[in-house]
Amino acid sequence: MTLLITVFAAIISTVLWYRIDEDRKLGMLSLMYWGASAMWLVDAIAEYMELKAEYFTPALKDMLNDAYLGISVVALGLIIWLIRLLYHDPKGKIRQLLER
Amino acid sequence: MACFLVPTTEAVVTTIIQKKAEKNKKEGKEQGIFLQRIGWLNNMLWGGSALLAFEHVWHGEVTPWFPFLTNAEDPANLTAMLQEMGTVGVGMAVTVTVLWAAMVTAAERMKKKMGKAIPVPVKQDRQMREERKREGGI
C-alpha cells in the first residue's frame, strides 16, 4: 500500500512538473518520489519472495497501517519540497517580504 | 531493518562527486553526460532514503538514542540486519542507479534527435523545392 501510494504521488508530481512547472522545483519532488518508489519496489520483491502469494492478501489492520504510512510519507515529501522551495525562493517573494 | 543506509551512503558519495563536477565545470572542463545529470541521482537517492528512513522510524527500527538501530543492540539481529543491507539495501541502490542511467540515456537520445530535426522555415523550404523541380529533380 505504501508503494502504491508513493507511485501515485510520483506520477501526479511528474504530470504537474510537465504541465505547470515554472521553477517550482516540482522536478525535485517527482524524483524524490520515484527514488522512494524504486526502493520500496525492491523491498516489496524481497517480501514477495519470502511470503509468496500471501503477500497479496494482507490483513486489513496491516493494510490500514500501510496506507496511513503511505499518506504520511507523501506529506513528508511535500514538506521537504516546500522547505526547499521557500529556501531557494525562485520568485523572490520571501526576499521581498524580508526587505519590507 | 537498516536497508536505507546503503542508498544513503551512495547519496553521500554522489554528492561529493557532484560538488567536484560543479567545480570542474566552473574551471571550464568538459563533462560526460552522466556527470551533467548527477543531480537527478542525488535527488532520487536523498529523497528516497529520507522517506525510507521515516518508514523505519514508523516501525520502531530507528531510535534517537545509541546505537540508533534497534537491531544493532542484539548480536543475533545484527547479523540479520547486515545480511538485509547486503541484499535489499544493495538492491535498492543498484535499482535507483540503473533507473537514473536509463533516464539519462533516454534524455540524451531525445536531445540528439531534437538537434538533428532543426525545422526549415516554410518559405525557404518552398524555394528549395522549386529549385529542385527546375533542375529536373523531384
Report a brief summary of the structure.
The complex is a heterodimer of chains A (100) and B (138). Chain A is mainly α and 100 residues long.
* Distance linking N and C termini of chain A: 47 Å
Q: What is the number of independent domains of chain A? A: 1
By secondary-structure content and strand pairing, the structural class of chain B works out as mainly alpha
Order of helices and strands of chain B: HHHHH
The proportion of residues in beta strands of chain A is under 5%
Helical amount among residues of chain B, as a percent range? over 70%
Essential attributes:
heterodimer, A: mainly alpha, 0% strand, B: 138 residues, mainly alpha, 74% helix, elongated
List the helices and strands and how they pair.
The complex is a heterodimer of chains A (100) and B (138).
Chain A: H1 2-20, H2 26-51, H3 60-88, H4 93-99
Chain B: H1 5-26, H2 33-36, H3 38-58, H4 75-116, H5 122-134
Structural summary, described in words:
The complex is a heterodimer of chains A (100) and B (138). Chain A has 100 residues and is mostly helical. Chain A has one domain. Helix content of chain A is 81%, strand content 0%. In chain A, helix 1 packs antiparallel against helix 2, helix 1 runs parallel beside helix 3 and helix 2 packs antiparallel against helix 3. The N and C termini of chain A lie far apart (47 Å). By secondary structure, chain B is mainly α. Chain B has one domain. Chain B is 74% helix and 0% strand. Chain B is built from 5 helices and no strands. Chain B has helices at 5-26, 33-36, 38-58, 75-116, 122-134. In chain B, helix 1 packs antiparallel against helix 3, helix 1 (5-26) packs parallel to helix 4 and helix 3 packs antiparallel against helix 4 (75-116). The longest helix of chain B is centred in the last third of the chain and has 42 residues, at 75-116. The N and C termini of chain B lie far apart (70 Å). The mean pLDDT of chain B is 85.
